[in-house]
Amino acid sequence: MKGIILAGGTGSRLHPVTLAVCKQLLPVYDKPMVYYPLSVLMLAGIRDILLISTPRDLPVFQELLGDGGQWGIRLTYAIQPKPEGLPQAFTIGADHIGDDRVAMILGDNIFFGEGMGSMLDHVISQSSGASAFCTRVTDPQRYGVVAFGPDGKVRDLQEKPKNPLSDWALTGLYVVGSDVVERVARLRPSLRGELEMVDLLKDYLADAQLDVLKMGRGYAWFDAGTHDSLLEASEFVRTVESRQGLKVACLEEIAFSKKLIDLDQFTVLAQRAGDTAYGRYLRGLITEWRADHD
Q1: Mean pLDDT across the stretch 16-31?
Q2: pLDDT tens-digit profile of 161-220?
Q3: How far is 252 from 216, CA to CA, in rounded Å?
Q4: Are the C-beta atoms of 52 and 37 separated by less than 8 Å?
Q5: Lower CB density within 10 Å: C or N end of the chain?
Q6: Which residues contact 18 (CB under 8 A, 6 or more apart)?
Q7: pTM of the model
Q8: How much of the chain is helix, strand and coil, in % rounded to 5?
Q9: Which residues lie across from 159 on neighbouring strands?
Q10: What is the pLDDT of residues 257-285, one digit of tens each?
């Protein structure tokens, strides 16, 4: 299984903050935004991940994340010359995908919920065709919308409709097969001049190969592409971490818990974090682990 993080775009909705800084590098409370989608893929057991970004921003991502070896994964990089729609990620990542299934997640999407990684892992291992995730929102006009029939199956999809058929919005997480590259090649740009994810999913729907899973109570999703949603996401993460004493999207902890790295490697990462709240958290995990294994 392969993974793709699409971290391109201009972040125009966050101007002037993003005039010089890519939005996926902005902090969501105590971590860069890109840590959150990366954590979802890692929790699902995906180790081979391609990050796609702009020519300007790609070197900064490479400096931040490296080759992923410190977390026991493989990170590679590709350039999106200009934003021409989400499905473009599959064309850019064609060589990366090869003959495998792939999970693509948007770099500004933040998911939280017990078992999120397991749910994605189940979709990856069990499904064929395309799978997407949706959640209820109060403003479906801003998103791709899913309408379900009485049988619970997908009836129709809309892209940012003025009159939504439902309040179920598509999130930025998709699982598709290797045939996605051929399907994207058949798409035509919308009136916005971009390839639309809804059109790609409709192509799967026409072949009865689309499954959209509802994320119900207990899950939180943020599309951190506006100032308000970015602040809401930061406040949410801060609240969860302060109340539970556990970090959200802590890549070092995930890598260690998934046995992608050993205790010695984890200890090195904890030391590199320095005398910060993040570093103290990592060293606290080492103390707990040793107490449990004495």
Answers
A1: 95
A2: 999 999 999 999 999 999 999 999 999 999 889 999 999 999 999 999 999 999 988 899
A3: 28
A4: no
A5: C
A6: 10, 11, 12, 26
A7: 0.96
A8: 40, 20, 35
A9: 144
A10: 999 999 999 999 999 999 999 999 999 99
CB 141 within 8 A of CB 162: yes
Closest CA relative to residue 119, chosen from 213, 221, 55, 200: 213
Distance CA 49, CA 144 (A): 25
Q: Which amino acid is at 163?
A: N
Q: Do 29 and 220 meet the contact criterion of CB atoms below 8 Å apart?
A: no
Of 41-55, 117-131, 182-196, which gets the smallest average pLDDT? 117-131
Distance CA 151, CA 16 (A): 46
Tokens 């740009």, residue located: 189
Please, is 279 exposed, middle or buried when counting C-beta atoms within 10 Å of its C-beta (0-12, 13-18, 19+)? middle
Sequence-ordered alpha helix ranges (H) in the chain = 35-43, 58-65, 88-92, 94-97, 116-126, 180-186, 197-206, 227-244, 251-257, 263-272, 277-293
Residue 270, φ and ψ in degrees, nearest 5: -65, -40
Encode 238-251: b = buried (16+ Cβ within 10 Å), e = exposed: eebbeeeeebbbbb
Q: Tell me 66's DSSP state.
A: T
